[in-house]
Design brief:
This protein has twelve helices and five strands. The chain is of the alpha+beta class and about 425 residues long. It has two domains: about 190 residues, no CATH class; about 130 residues, Histidine kinase-like ATPase, C-terminal domain (Heat Shock Protein 90, 2-Layer Sandwich), CATH 3.30.565. It has a five-stranded mixed β-sheet, with helices on one face. Helix 3 runs antiparallel to helix 6 and helix 7 packs antiparallel against helix 8. It is rod-shaped and about 135 Å long. The two termini are about 65 Å apart. One of its GO terms (molecular function) is phosphorelay sensor kinase activity. It catalyses: ATP + protein L-histidine = ADP + protein N-phospho-L-histidine. This is histidine kinase.
């Protein structure tokens, strides 16, 4: 009988129906409730295993109950036959022996459900005592196999019922009524077994959907973490490239002008010390976020820069010896959304860093325009450098990162040579 309550529930939802899924974790203390035979036949996780599944304690109890049902019905049939003097004693003995063998065969119902049910059709036609075993076999094939097997075996049994009761009429029940009751019992057994199988299939389907949901959720979390770490990497590049460029510029000035006035040397050393301190602090914060959970750079302790910090960035570059002109037409930087202002700040920071490395001595112009509804436009332009430019290695990752930043913010980013032979980066970001 396989047990109608056998069920498992673990995990799955809307990943592709053919996508391979990880094995569900074992559920401690639940194996006793799992119908191993039916699970192996219906569950794709179990059906691919070699050999027959091990019969559980529940399986043994169910099989023993089926055996008792078969024996009880068989004893009732044998008792009815013993009271019928029209049946020869030899035929009664054969009937009872066939019934005993049929009841013993019930223990094989899990191994050969279809074969047992087919064999019970002629046996039940010959032996009245085997009726209980025939019903158990019919129920088993309905539970363990698709409906067509139960329909064929049940239909064959139902077709033989009129002939059976014609040859062995019941002395107390009319012929038509006993045949109708036999058909009703056969249909009930097949329907009950089919319902039990459908319930198990539903439970397995829900388990698979839950597993897919859990797998998809894990994939989404992994993707979100990966995107957050990529954002941290971009943040690290933007911040540290600016700080380290300041270090390089002032260290180069000290190297090539060892006879500089003491005041300039002290100022350059102070800028180097301050830039190194801020670079280390930024690095500690980013590494701390990476060690924590990868939730993004916004979770660090220091507030992120916005458009209002652009003045400080330009002042810092001027202190490093750059010629920078800020043309800011946004009078109230506080009205700019924080994410848009932060993206604009990083674009200006990367533009100044590149100009400092690749066009030393050139005057850089930072232009910011925009209004709510029109968007925010920021550009950084520098003319060709006045002298020879030392080779400075670069990977181009900064411009790629700025393109990603602008795209994620819903805008667009452009860069390339200017009309005067210099270089220009510009971006448009949505505002309002």
């Amino acid at each position: 009988m396989g047990g109608a309550n056998g069920q498992r529930c673990v995990d799955l939802s809307t990943v592709s129906d053919t996508a391979p899924l990880p094995k569900p974790p074992p559920v401690p203390g639940r194996r006793w409730f799992l119908p191993s035979a039916v699970t192996a036949e219906l569950d794709p996780d179990q059906s691919g295993r070699k050999g027959r599944p091990k019969r559980t304690a529940r399986d043994w109890l169910v099989d023993f109950a089926c055996f008792l049902i078969a024996v009880t019905v068989g004893l009732i049939g044998a008792d009815e036959m013993s009271g019928n003097t029209d049946i020869p004693y030899a035929l009664q003995a054969v009937d009872q022996w066939l019934g005993a063998l049929a009841c013993a065969a019930v223990w094989l119902r899990r191994r050969w459900p279809v074969g047992l049910a087919v064999a019970m059709v002629p046996v039940c036609f010959i032996s009245n005592t085997a009726g209980g075993a025939g019903l158990v076999a019919l129920f088993t094939v309905a539970v363990h196999r698709p409906f067509k097997y139960a329909a064929w075996t049940g239909g064959a049994s139902a077709a033989l019922l009129p002939l059976f009761y014609w040859l062995r009429p019941d002395p107390e029940v009319p012929y038509v009524l006993i045949v109708a009751l036999g058909w009703l019992l056969t249909a009930t057994v097949v329907g009950w077994g089919t319902l039990a199988r459908s319930k198990r299939q539903l439970m397995l389907s829900l388990r698979d959907r839950a597993r897919r949901a859990e797998t998809e959720s894990a994939l989404r979390a992994e993707q979100a973490q990966r995107l957050a770490r990529e954002a941290i990497a971009r943040e690290m590049h933007d911040v540290l490239a600016h700080r380290l460029t300041l270090l390089s510029v002032h260290a180069g000035a000290l190297e090539f002008r060892p006879d500089a006035p003491q005041v300039e040397v002290a100022r350059a050393a102070g800028v180097i010390r301050e830039s190194a301190h801020e670079a280390l602090q930024d690095l500690r914060e980013i590494i701390g976020v990476l060690r924590a959970s990868g939730d993004g750079p916004e979770e660090s302790g220091r507030p992120q820069p916005t458009l209002g910090a652009l003045e400080g960035l330009v002042s810092e570059s001027r202190e490093a010896g750059m010629k920078v002109t800020l043309d800011n037409h946004v009078t109230d930087a506080g009205t700019v959304p924080a994410s848009v202002g932060r993206t604009a700040y990083r674009i200006a920071q990367e533009g100044l860093t590149n100009a400092r490395k690749h066009a030393p001595g050139a005057e850089v112009t930072v232009t910011v325009t925009g209004a709510p509804g029109d968007g925010l436009t920021i550009s950084v332009h520098n003319p060709p450098p006045p002298g020879d430019v030392p080779h400075v290695p670069g990977s181009g990752q900064g411009l790629i990162g700025l393109t990603e930043r602008a795209t994620l913010a819903g805008g667009h980013f452009e860069h390339g040579p200017g009309e005067d032979g210099g270089f220009r980066v510009s971006a448009w970001l949505p505002w309002g």
